[in-house]
Design brief:
- The protein is an all-alpha fold.
- It has two domains: 47 residues; 112 residues, no CATH class.
- It has a two-stranded antiparallel ribbon.
- It is rod-shaped, with a radius of gyration of 31 Å.
- The N and C termini lie far apart (90 Å).
- The relative contact order is 0.07.
């Protein structure tokens, strides 16, 4: 005997009810058919609902949220923010602004909006700054896919590395100019 789900049991029950209501309409005098027709219509609506929905009960949303990424982190004071992101809020904003000029944050020749860079930097810093947090946990906490966590992290690493190289070269040039070597 096959196993039925609760939904299949409900469908079988209402299909039997539909058949019984249809037979009852034929056997009922014309004056009372209106009541039976309404019962039949209600049964049809229930069957349409059951066949049209995959689940009988509404599914609960898998708990993932952009709250930490977008709302909670911004509400933290500098000490808590720095504990999570390893930067103060001011440092974070300045780095995001500097990275917005990087070639790593271009889409089809146009620069990515600063809000998108802030999200990418938050994801990367959360991944890199937290002790032992997995890519999967970072994805869940920030509500992005696992692939995006990896892509955002490497994009930010490459952009920061390029920035570091530029600053190092500029510092060496400045030192050389000060010593009269250039």
């Amino acid at each position: 005997m096959p196993k039925y789900t609760a939904k299949q049991h409900l469908i079988n029950k209402y299909e039997r009810e539909f058949t019984d209501a249809a037979i009852a309409i034929v056997q009922t005098p014309k004056e009372r058919r209106l009541v039976r027709l309404r019962m039949l219509e209600a049964t049809v609506e229930i069957l349409k609902f059951l066949h049209g929905n995959r689940y009988v009960h509404p599914r609960t949303q898998v708990p993932s949220s952009t709250d930490l990424r977008d709302r909670v982190l911004n509400a933290y004071n500098d000490v808590r923010f720095k504990g999570i992101m390893r930067l103060t809020k001011d440092q974070f904003q300045r780095i995001a602004l500097i990275l917005s000029r990087s070639g790593h944050f271009k889409r089809g020749g146009e620069h990515v909006p600063l809000e998108d860079i802030i999200i990418q930097l938050k994801v990367a810093l959360l991944r890199l700054g937290s002790e032992g947090i997995s890519v999967l946990m970072t994805a869940w906490v920030t509500d992005v896919s696992v692939g995006l966590v990896t892509a955002y992290t490497w994009r930010c690493i490459n952009a920061l590395d390029e920035l570091f190289q530029r600053c190092r070269v500029a510092r060496q040039c400045a030192q050389g100019c000060n010593q009269g070597l250039v």
